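Design a sequence for this backbone.
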């Protein structure tokens, strides 16, 4: 990935220019480093990924303005589905009827 910019992985022109504008504004802002976020689509291996792009600026030891970014894949799953998944993984849901022990009464 040497020689590639983050925008090279954004297939949408609007996302690329929006990130460029936001990052440039963040680097020029001298009032303090506040974290920022934007949602974008990025190109992955043979797929498109919905990403939350988190970034913050800071001054390097040489005084230059720097930007560090983190990526988090977003999942389009309903809140109720997420709640059920969390409860099931924590063991707080009763077993499904197919999982019941043989001879157990439902």
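Sequence:
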């Amino acid at each position: 990935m040497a020689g590639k910019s983050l925008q090279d992985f954004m297939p949408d022109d609007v996302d690329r220019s929006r990130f460029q504008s936001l990052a440039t504004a963040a680097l020029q802002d001298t009032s303090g480093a506040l974290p920022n976020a934007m949602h974008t689509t990025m190109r992955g291996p043979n797929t498109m990924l919905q990403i939350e792009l988190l970034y913050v600026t800071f001054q390097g030891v040489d005084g230059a303005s720097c930007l560090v970014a983190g990526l988090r894949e977003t999942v389009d799953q309903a809140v109720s589905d997420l709640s059920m998944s969390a409860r099931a993984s924590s063991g707080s849901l009763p077993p499904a009827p197919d999982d019941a022990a043989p001879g157990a009464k439902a």
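The first strand starts at residue 36 and ends at 44.
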